[in-house]
Design goal:
Elements: H1 11-42, H2 53-82, H3 92-96, H4 99-118
Helix pairs in contact: 1-2
Length: 119
């Protein structure tokens, strides 16, 4: 006789399951964030010998991996946020733009906040 998985649908079980999904989505987003930081700077500006097709192939593969990580993190943050969790980065702009963009944006936000406070 095959055993069947039975999911308890009482309110407390649903809350526990949603907490689990929220926490897993958050963990996925933070892992994607960590891996993105590694790939963004590890290979940024690295260009193998232009004549070497193999180095270009490796570079393309690394960018594809990083792109997948970014989209995965963004989707996990969407899940986490919709379940009232704490998103790692937040919206698509925060996930899909290069860390330099996010850094420049943060500096601009700090400057405008300082100017409005001092003005």
């Amino acid at each position: 006789m095959a055993s069947e998985n039975v999911i308890d649908t009482t309110p407390s079980a649903e809350a526990t399951q949603l907490d689990l999904v929220r926490d897993l989505a958050s963990a996925i987003a933070y892992l994607a964030d960590e891996l993105d930081e590694h790939f963004a700077y590890e290979f940024d500006g690295w260009r193998g010998n232009p004549a070497d097709v193999r180095s270009r192939h490796i570079e393309v593969q690394q960018e594809r991996i990083r792109d997948g990580l970014l989209r995965m993190g963004w989707m996990a943050d969407l899940i986490s946020e919709r379940l009232n969790g704490d998103p790692c980065r937040g919206d698509a702009e925060e996930w899909l733009m290069h860390p330099r963009y996010r850094g420049a944006k943060a500096k601009l936000n700090i400057s405008s906040t300082t100017e409005s406070t001092n003005g």
